[in-house]
Predict the structure.
Amino acid sequence: MVAGIIFAILLFGFLIISHELGHFLAAKAAGVEVTDFSVGMGPVLFSKKIKTTRYCLRLLPIGGSCSMYGEDEEIDKPGSFYHAKPLARLGILAAGAGMNILTAVLAGVVLCFLAGVDRPVVSDVEEGHPAAAVLEEGDRITRINDVSISCGKDLTMCTLSGMPETVSVTYVRDGVSHTDTYETTVSSLLLGFSYQTAGSAELTAVTEGGAMAEAGFLPGDVIVSVDGHAMENGAAVHDWFTDHPLSEGTAVDVVCERDGIEISASVMPRMTENTSFGFSMQRQDDAGFLSYIAGGVSEAVWWVKSVFVSLQMLFIGDAGISDLTGPVGITSTVAETVSSGYDLREKALSGLMITVMLGANLGVMNLLPIPALDGGRIVFTLIEMIRRKPVPRQIEAVIHAVGMIVLLGLIFVVFVQDSLRLMG
């Protein structure tokens, strides 16, 4: 867990440095003087001035900074921030977020190379489920109800308002597109849990009142063996249950690891009415180099899209401040996720997935038109371009100051929320 927390802190620091590096490179390209570029925060360990820029290595690896000449003052001299043309300033302001999204794409490319591309291709259809009369292994899903499907993760977008009782699925088989409808409710033998198939077989949910819950298993536990057979990862668990369907009256011996301690139980499957899509999709590892690049872009785009969906839910009231998570909560989640990896490879995959998610999130959030953020400053620059004269700098500074106060207040509320969650 300690190693996970250290990784989370370093990851945050890396993403902040990459953000500031985007501003730095864009400023240099636009002829804006960068007075200070720092890696880390706190006391200076080492510094060197090259031309007009002082480069610093600081003690705490939790971020970085890029200071430009005249950035926070009304200075209109050659080399100052406000002396640059509005379009150049626009590029400088957007470059930080752009670098975060580029980081997400690169992490996504490496993820696809190591774990496979997240294609919306059916890998397995649940026997006895209504979906079995419609779908086959190898079908490529393109739409479910009114949601376009471009990758496996898009399935989560179909259940934001709960699992639909009826599914209209469009899929491609042998080059021909088909659309069929089926019910998602079915009675079947279940142990009452779900798990991640990419990476370690970590339990993502345990059904309340279900067989696994009554046996004492919890979300976050990692399956290490089933019926005496070692499970190296989630894919192995999936393959095991595909080859060994549950049987009524026959218990399954499950061993999970929790905080380094193994927990075992004999779990009796129960006939349960549940709703599901009735099929699963797995990453495809037979792709070429260009497919890995396209897959990396797709990974980042999906997380960008998910940020906008989350913001829409906040706006229409489907989510509230209580659903927000700040640095404390994210650090805890990252630490738990990375620490739960079964081996070094699984930990690396988890780390890459989190890097894609956080990189895309940080990029989008910084571009929101909120005072004090890059997006807020972009708005003022766009107004200047339209009016052909800037908003008075003093007025802009006051608006950014008020925005910063509001943001700090929100961060404090979320910090308290995350801390209370962690404590209990």
